[in-house]
Design brief:
The chain has 98 residues and is mostly helical. It is built from 4 helices and no strands.
Length: 98
């Protein structure tokens, strides 16, 4: 479910509507990638490959948005927010399942 949600959030055309509050985009990025990292670690354990895969997905998703999706744009700050989310999710999962 988290992967499907990420596909919609990251790759569906953006309507460009008004944000409910400043920075909501970054909150969404952190939350989404925290959920992806959390569920990856929860499912596959503390394998470095899982952490690297979620981190790579963060970077690649922004490149795809910048290069291949006309109604989306890639943002280096989004990559940073994604990687913060990856770290938070990974560490939270560690606390719950070492």
């Amino acid at each position: 479910m988290v992967v499907l949600a990420s596909l919609v959030v990251l790759f569906a055309p953006s309507d460009g509507g008004a944000a409910p509050f400043p920075g909501v985009d970054k909150v969404v990025h952190v939350s989404l990638f925290a959920a992806l990292a959390f569920t990856t670690r929860w499912r596959f354990g503390p394998l470095l490959a899982g952490l690297l895969a979620v981190g790579a997905y963060a970077v690649v998703s922004e490149i795809v948005q910048a290069v291949a999706l006309p109604k989306r744009s890639g943002d280096p700050v989004d990559v940073l927010a994604d990687l913060v989310g990856v770290t938070v999710g990974w560490l939270l999962a560690r606390r719950l399942r070492p």
